[in-house]
Design brief:
201 residues; mainly alpha; 2 domains; 87% helix
Amino acid sequence: MSHREGTPADDPFHVDPKEVLAQYSVEWVSLRKSYDELKTKLQDVQAELSTLDRKLEMKEIDDQQHIKMYREKWAESTQMIQVKREVENRLFEIQREIRAANRQLKKQEEERLRRERMEQERANAMIEWMSLKQGFDLVGARREEINAASDELERNRRSGKVSEDEYRQQRIGQIQQLAELRTVESDIKNRLAELLAIIRK
């Protein structure tokens, strides 16, 4: 399997979630309007049926007229109820698609923010790495200076230019400085490794 398979570019049926929302918005508005109109018409039919019942009670119409008109209104309402159900089903389908598209958009936004955070972390890590690398080089240079001074001190001791006491005092100072440098160097190395891991993500 190619490492590119499964990506949107390789999916012939892939649709951008934003396009899904745009495509469904017009249909949703239209169907929702039809749905509200159907509800109103059904309420009107229900009111008309109630009126027929009252007319029958008031003897304004007879049973035969009542049955005939009632059947007509009932058939009309039955048809509208069927259409209303179809509209409802389609609205539910669109609603599911819209929610799925919104979830996808949310995932895309989260992924975008994650990538931005990673890029910012890499940029910050690179800046810190370059700064620490300079510090690491300076520590190395300082260690070489101390070692050179130590060699010079040893030569002076052998030639008698410095006394044993002076030699010991200066040598102890050099050893302490080298120990401090090793600690600093170790800390910098560890941090450089951490930063390098971030940069290589």
